[in-house]
Amino acid sequence: MASGETITSSEYISHHLTNLTYGRFPDGHWGLAHSAEEAKEFGFWAIHLDTMFWSIGLAVLFSYFFWKAGKNATAGVPGKLQNFVEMMVEFVDNSVKGSFSGKNPLVAPLALTIFVWVFLMNLMDLVPVDLLPRIAGAIGIHHMKVVPSTDPNVTFALALGVFALIIYYSIKIKGVGGFVRELTGMPFQTENVLLKPVFFVINLFLEGVNLLAKPVSLSLRLFGNMYAGEMIFILIALMYGAGVGMGIFGGALQFVWAVFHILVITLQAFIFMTLTIVYLDMAHSEHH
Amino acid sequence: MNINLTLIAQLASFAVFVWFTMKFVWPPLVRALEERKVQIADGLVAAERGAHVKELAEQAAKEKLHEAKLQSAEIVARAEKRAAEIVDEAKEQARVEGDRIVTAARAEIEQEINKAREVLRTRVGELAVAGAEKILRREINADAHKEIVDELAKQI
After folding, report:
1. Is residue A251 part of a domain?
2. Which of residues 65-94 of A touch B (CB under 8 A)?
3. Contact at 8 Å (CB) between A153 and B6?
4. Would A142 be classed as within a structural domain?
5. Which helix (H) or strand (E) holds B94?
6. Residues of B whose CB is below 8 A from A45
7. Which of A12, A36, A74, A219 is a plausible cystine mate for A155, CB 3.0–4.6 Å?
8. Are B11 and A66 in contact (CB < 8 Å)?
9. pTM for the full model?
10. Rounded Cα–Cα distance for residues B29 and A69 (Å)
11. Which of B6, B35, B42 to mutate to test the interface with A (most CBs of A within 10 A)?
12. What is the ipTM of this complex?
């Protein structure tokens, strides 16, 4: 905020909320957007380079360390890295064993990936909001959103991935007929032939909403929490431009909010993981 | 805030990372955990077995010690008995030896007495003859009457 050029608070905020977007301009050529409006004009044919960079970078980091720990894993006395990784694996394994009754080798690794990845993406929220964008600005990148989980693309991608697995396993375990019966045969049941089509429609509507609510709630919960959290960090950062007193007060606030946020980011990662396990368990079981 | 191609790209990378975790991260870690579980269980069983063996050995050692004590007591008792026997035997032997010596001494004394008596008898005979000679100097010839004197000496 405390830069030479004077910008208003709303400009500062909107600058922080704009992704580094690479997309197709209305006239057909591809390039980086220079403002939020330009980014909006791209429509679907655009990609958030900052989101991609940080999310994939963090995932690679996670993959690398966990892969290294797995490669050197011994049944003997574990090293520090292996100890940590084993702790995570056992934590996830216990969560899966507690909530997932079926047998599927995909679920536990999926849960581990989700938990660690979401946690790492959320963790970027604790980096001071201006630090990385300012470094990026110094090397000529004007927009930089460093918390991937404040990008709905990321949270929706995760949720849609889980949703696809829910559909896939529902059909695989119960068959198409079973899945359709589950969607239309409950909760209202009748022996009356005339009422059957009516109940069919009502059930399909209720169960359809129920089913679609899963990915939507999954993604919006994470997105909403992280977006709001980042917004508060940005608002606190605004105080640094309002004199020494406000600056110190802002520093104290930022510390308090960051400490509280440690809880939020862990909790959100855990909720995402647990709900994924529960949804997949429901997809695997005959009744719910 | 816009939904765009990023969504698709994220979906793809999500799939890749889940696959990676499933293939290269999860199995070796879980295997290591399982192996360690087995090792710990084995170790506990071995420790229990060791403790059991130690208990048995202690019991055996106690029994051996008890046996050895009994044996040593027996040996001591036997040795004491034997010592008493030896003392008794020695006493008996000494007594017998003493008796023998006393008997031998008595026999010798008897002999000496007999010998002295013999000598005395001879001397008394001679004295009697000498006395008789003095008395009968004139009429009796020592040579002529030697036979009579000897006979007298024998009778004494």
Report:
1. yes
2. 66-67, 69-71, 73-76, 78, 82, 85-86, 89-90, 93
3. yes
4. yes
5. helix B26-135
6. 4-5
7. A219
8. no
9. 0.73
10. 8
11. B6
12. 0.83
CA–CA separation, A245 and B147 (whole Å): 178
Domain count, chain A: 1
- Could you tell me the pLDDT band of residue A181, with boundaries at 50, 70 and 90? confident
pLDDT digits (tens, 9 = 90+) for B45-83: 999 999 999 999 999 999 999 999 999 999 999 999 999
Task: Give the confidence band of B43 by pLDDT, cuts at 50, 70, 90.
Answer: very high
Q: Which residue's entry shows tokens 């855990």?
A: A270
d(CA B34, CA B90): 83
Residue B152 and residue B125 in contact, taking contact as beta carbons nearer than 8 Å: yes
Gap between the Cα atoms of A49 and B4, Å rounded: 12
Q: Compute the CA torsion angle A226, A232, A234, A235 (nearest 10 deg).
A: 160
| Structural domain that includes position A271 | 51-284
- pLDDT at residue number A19: 79
CA distance A239 to chain B (A): 25
Tokens of B8: 């698709």
Does residue A44 sit within a domain? no
